[in-house]
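Throughout our pipeline, every protein is held as a single compact record rather than as scattered files. Such a record has a labelled line for the sequence and another for the backbone structure tokens. This encoding replaces a full spatial description with a residue-level series of whole-number codes. For reference, a complete record is included directly beneath this paragraph.
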Amino acid sequence: MAAAYRKFNFKLLRDAAMDTVRITSLVVLILFGSTMFSLVFDGLGGTRLMVDLLSGLPGGYWGFIVVAMTAVFLLGIFLEFIEICFITLPIFVPAAQALGIDLTWFGILMALNLYTAFISPPVGFTLFYLSSVAPPEVKIGDIFRGVIPFMVVSLIVLAIVVAFPETVTYLTTRSAAGFVSP
């Protein structure tokens, strides 16, 4: 793009490379920290404790879904995707497996839930990203009101996926059953 606009130079390339290294390093450090957390947590018996606790919730399967989705939604309002996934997945996935939950379906539920959280006022990160690129006459309150239809649609999609898991598992179950030719 820079070359197309005749703005390319080696300082620009160097700065882009350095920014890429910084961001990648940050992500790797977060991954390293969460992996260490998971290993220590598992080594101290935390995974087994959480599996027992989460699979023994009132309501069983659905009780776990409600607790997991509520926790992910609340975290999604204040934290970013990478931190949430690296911290919650090692806790929730073993419990989901113990309850026999399809992990494809569970992952899609988490993604839809996080999307809804990211656009939720008052702290949804996406709203602040939007306000940073919006014209000065567009106030944050306007953005908060404007996102409500998207939240409603997102919640409807989430409800459809909860009610009809086949909407997201259809292709994987057909493939697993041998219906899809190589």
About this structure: The chain has one domain: 45-176. The chain has a mean pLDDT of 86. The radius of gyration is 21 Å. Residues 10-43 form the longest helix (34 residues).
